[in-house]
Amino acid sequence: MLLHKYCASGNDFLITHQFTPQDRSALAKEVCDRHYGFGADGLVVLLPHSEHAYTWEFYNADGSCASMCGNASRCVGLYAYHQGLASLKHTFLSGAGVISLEVLSLNPQGGIVQSNLGVPKRLESLQLEGQTWHLLDTGVPHLVHFVDHPNKIPTHKTPQMQALRTRFNANVNIACITDSHTIRLATYERGVEDITLACGTGMAAVFVAARKEHHLTPQATLIPPSGEALNWYLKGHEVCFKGQVHFIGFILEKPAFKGYRADLF
């Protein structure tokens, strides 16, 4: 199996396309391992679809499935174009619904890709441990809490983030609005079980919560731990974002070598 590695704002994914759906959770866990595998935040398998350019199977690094991943959507958009599976502008079916994509430009590193994540669902505001949290669904559930200074954004997972992730089965975001159009944030992601360099659906949740609760402008820049800023904006009630996607390279998954002579490698 040929796997292509793409990275968007620090989120990296192994991507391939196949013809039949199946349970590839064990494969995802193996190839995404950063010590004994190739290393990635997730495995994405594109499959044919009758109405859209493709559908996908999305696996987190621990082998669990997820309905949606924002940065992965941008990566598969560029991958699908590179592989001749889709045009520059196309749609695909995720577990969270139809996602619209557009490869805005190509460059030596990969390309600038825009993703429309649709209309988010705002569930409720909660008082937890004396703090205000917002629970939203932007394809997957997210908890959002705002702090008053960037140095209060954790750089490593905390017991509180782990406890809230388990209690609500949601990703956990802590963010700081640094001015009327800029937010810094960190996201603890389920499936990775740690703070990741970026999370597209997490940034979407933070953006929507900031618009609702703190009157953020309709266009904003969000900066995750990777430091790679992404541009967010509203298209009606739909949340869109764009940024650079990097093509890293391609690799052969280990079972592909079975039957070959070891002395040839």
Measured as a percent range, the helix fraction is 10-25%
CA-to-CA gap between the ends? Answer: 17 Å
**In terms of structural class, how would the helical and strand content be classed?**
alpha+beta
The overall average pLDDT, rounded, is 93
Are there runs of 5+ residues with pLDDT below 50, and where? 257-265
Anisotropy-based shape: globular
Count of β-strands: 16
Q: What percent strand?
A: 35-45%
The ordered string of helix (H) and strand (E) elements is EEHEEHEEEEEEHEEEHEEE
- Radius of gyration, rounded? 18 Å
Assembly type: single chain
Number of helices: 4
- How many strands, which pairing sense, and closed or not: the largest β-sheet? 16 strands, mixed
Can you describe what's shown?
The radius of gyration is 18 Å and the shape is globular. A hairpin with a 2-residue loop joins strand 6 (97-107) and strand 7. It has helices at residues 25-32, 70-82, 159-168, 200-214; strands at 2-8, 11-17, 42-47, 55-60, 89-94, 97-107, 110-116, 121-128, 131-137, 141-146, 171-179, 182-189, 194-196, 219-223, 230-235, 238-252. It has a 16-stranded mixed β-sheet that branches. With 265 residues, it is an alpha+beta fold.
Describe the structure concisely for a colleague.
The protein contains 4 helices and 16 strands.
Summarize the topology.
Layout: E1 2-8, E2 11-17, H1 25-32, E3 42-47, E4 55-60, H2 70-82, E5 89-94, E6 97-107, E7 110-116, E8 121-128, E9 131-137, E10 141-146, H3 159-168, E11 171-179, E12 182-189, E13 194-196, H4 200-214, E14 219-223, E15 230-235, E16 238-252
Parallel strand pairs: 2-3, 10-11, 12-14
Antiparallel strand pairs: 1-2, 1-16, 3-4, 5-6, 6-7, 7-16, 8-9, 9-10, 11-12, 12-13, 14-15, 15-16
